[in-house]
C-alpha cells in the first residue's frame, strides 16, 4: 500500500493547501533547528497531532518503509570506530536524533499527502509561483499524477512479457534495457497523442482553477506554521 | 457570481509537445521507482530512477530534461507516490535522500549538455558512445557528490561514514545502468525523434 490522498472530512481536509504547506516548511525548519531530545519530544507530539488531524494513523507511515534501512543503519555506522572504544555512543546518539528528526518530518508530510487532492495542490502551486513557471509546474504536476498509474502498468506489462519469454536468464543490464525501452516508447507515444490532444482542446496558459480561500480553520494552521518558522529563526540567529 | 473577462492565452504547438513530453518523462521516472532489480553487490535492490534521470537529459536535452525532473520532484513533494519505494511528500526533499533528489535536475542538465552540446537536442545517431558514457559518468558524479554531502549534513555523519551508507553499495549498480542506457540509445526500437 502506498501513501495517497484519502477523501475525508477531517480538519486538515478542510483547510487551504497553502496553510498545510507552510506548516510543513515550518516543521522541517524547527526540526533542523531543535535537534535535541527535548525539542524532538515536543515536535513528536506536534507531528502525531498533524497526522491525526488529517485522519491518519500509523498505517500511513508504512509507505515510508523504504527510508527505514538508511535511517536505522546511519547511527550504527556513525557510532562504529576503528580501534578503541569500537563504538562511540555520543556519535551514534547525534545521528540517531538526526534520523528521528527525518522520521518526524515524514510523518507531517504524510498528513499533507493524505488530506490534499491533486487539484488543490496544483492550484496552490499556480497561485504561489508567479507567471509561466508556476503554470508549467501546475499543469505538469497534474499530468504526472494522471499518467503515473498508466506508465507503471506499462512497465509491469513489459516486465511480465520479458519474464514470459525466459528473460530472467538474461544479464541484469539487458533486462533493464528491455524494460526501459518499452517504457520510453510507451511514454513518448502517450506524450505525442497528449500534445496533439492538448492543442486540439485550446490548451491555455491560464485555465480556470478551483477557488482557494483561507477559512477560519486556516488561522491556527498559519499561526502554527509561522510560529515554527519563527522559532527556527530564533534558534539559528546568532 | 463574478465573471472573468481574461482572454485565453494559448500554448503554442511546440511548447505543448515539449510540455507533454516533459510531464510524461517525469511520470516515467516515477514509474521507474517501482521497477527493482537485484543489486550485484548488496542485498538492497536498485531501482531505475537514476537511469530515468540520465535518459531525460539524453532524450529531452538539457533544458526540457531538467524541467522534466523538476516536475518529478514537484509532483513527489505534493503527494504523487514517485520517490523510492512509492513514497511521497515534502519530507523527502529535506530528508535523508534530499541530496540525491535535488541533484537530479542538475544531473539531467549536465548529461543533456554534454550529449547535445547546446540547449536544443541534436540527432542522437551523431553522438558517439564515449560521449554518452562520459556524460553519464559525469551525471553519476554529480548525483553522488550531492547525495553523499546531503546524507552527511542531514544525518550528521562524517565523510567516510556517509560514503559507506550512501554510495558504496550503489555505485556498482550505476555502471549497469550506464551500460543499459547506452544500449537503449543505440537501440533501433526507440521511436522518438
From TrEMBL, chain A:
Its main location: membrane. It is found in: Membrane. Signal peptide: none annotated. The chain crosses the membrane at residues 31-54, 66-83, 95-113. It comes from the Archaea. InterPro entries: ABC/ECF_trnsptr_transmembrane (IPR003339). Keywords: Membrane, Transmembrane, Transmembrane helix. GO terms for cellular component: plasma membrane. It is a multi-pass membrane protein. This is Cobalt transporter. It comes from Halorubrum aidingense JCM 13560.
TrEMBL record, chain B:
It is found in: Cell membrane. This is BioY protein. Pfam families: BioY. Belongs to the BioY family. One of its GO terms (cellular component) is plasma membrane. InterPro entries: BioY. It is a multi-pass membrane protein. The chain crosses the membrane at residues 20-38, 50-78, 98-115, 127-155. Its main location: membrane. It comes from Halorubrum aidingense JCM 13560. Gene3D superfamilies: 1.10.1760.20. One of its GO terms (molecular function) is biotin transmembrane transporter activity. Keywords: Cell membrane, Membrane, Transmembrane, Transmembrane helix, Transport.
